[in-house]
Write a structure and sequence with these properties.
The structure is a single chain. 14% of the residues lie in helices and 43% in strands. It has one helix and six strands; from the N terminus they run H-E-E-E-E-E-E. Strands 4-3-2-1-5-6 form a six-stranded antiparallel β-sheet, with helices on one face.
Length: 84
């Protein structure tokens, strides 16, 4: 997901750590997020990588989907908390 016109809002640091742990453990995750049009999407996939590019954080899924972290609503039924 690429939304260059919307400033990136860093996510909660503890939540970021949780995403990295799920990636390390190769956990299949249920991910709910808003796409670039604002529609809610619900996917199930493994997190392959959590990374930053041009000061924006993303995660890449095993199905090829790339999600901007500030578009997350919930992962594994755990809602994204307020920003760090």
């Amino acid at each position: 997901m690429n939304t260059p016109d919307i400033p990136y809002q860093p996510i909660d640091c503890n939540y970021y750590d949780r995403l990295e742990a799920w990636a390390t453990m190769r956990t299949v995750c249920r991910i709910v997020f808003r796409d670039e049009t604002g529609n809610e999407q619900d996917v199930t996939a493994r997190i392959m990588d959590v990374y930053a590019l041009n000061k924006v954080e993303y995660m890449r899924m095993d199905n090829g989907l790339v999600i901007r972290l500030d578009s997350l609503i919930a992962v594994n039924n755990i809602p994204l908390p307020d920003h760090c």
